[in-house]
């Protein structure tokens, strides 16, 4: 045991009237929501990077956090894991997620970094054997080190591509060994800053072949989890090749991977792409590539990805409605890709940020489930499109343009606009949230 969280109790459900800040008011793991325990519906995960590796910097200032595990030794990496699992136990979360660079120190060579990764994987494997919390997904950090400044799979230097392949192979091996249920590829530098020095066609081709190689290796080693791409439009690059769900789907189709790869959708990234979170989830579901989510929020007055913990259940309820409509998670989950503010220095802040985020999501889930079970919204949607279920409408889709056009004169069609009833449906929505 460490003493970092000394005096902080395990968080228990006490109900909405509780005044205990170290308690859940809405997240009750055993409550049944649409036929499943809430814990199994939510599948919460803690992000290793923001919670235990982030030093509190921002674009205008450096480190504000002083954590006892900060440093580049394996002893400190093991201490970080000790603290992490203590927090997992306090929160009772079923999952965590990590990049390799979060968990192990960077070595002077690839061989040294690989040894550090495998050694810390041994330590994490032993931790998982004694604790409830397991690995939701692993990934490789291929954006922080200076070698990745021009990308990983899209780098103009083939040696960097090879280094990226070695990194991903190592991390897929570790993810499989730790029982990870997914493997995520987040292309933090897979884009460009100017077309003046970029061969866009070549970079996209290399990125496509890299992803094909990842899928081939998945099957070779018998990894049963999902391969996930996390879309992001910009920041740090001017343009990134995985801009949004629609762009990723087109990319997957181009390289024959639409049946092999799904998406991990982040709230903050959706906003940066000019979309809503629920739009990205609904589109991924419609395209058959929905996998998992990174839960956070942006500061809407700031033009960058601030990774704040969610605190607006009404906003999140729309996203969870789409997740429930899609049938819920399979291997995915609700990962808090969120960080406390750089002024929130205390251990209690780290715990309470997650408590608030979990309660916000639980309240959102219950509202979404109640509306879905009520059926009024789905009934209204079905009624709006009911005309398409008629034999004439279906025949029109199967025939040619002339046959569709002929209906106008043959049936004397003079279609009149019908109300979309948006305000009425918004009022319905607000009754539940």
Automatic annotation (TrEMBL):
This protein's record includes keyword Cytoplasm = yes
One BP term from GO: D-xylose metabolic process
Q: What is its EC number?
A: 5.3.1.5
What GO molecular functions are on record for this protein?
magnesium ion binding; xylose isomerase activity
Instruction: Identify which top EC class this enzyme belongs to.
Output: isomerase
UniProt KW keywords: Carbohydrate metabolism, Cytoplasm, Isomerase, Magnesium, Metal-binding, Xylose metabolism
Protein family according to the UniProt entry = Belongs to the xylose isomerase family.
Protein name in UniProt: Xylose isomerase
Instruction: Give the originating organism.
Output: Neogemmobacter tilapiae
Origin organism lineage? Bacteria, Pseudomonadati, Pseudomonadota, Alphaproteobacteria, Rhodobacterales
Q: Gene symbol?
A: xylA
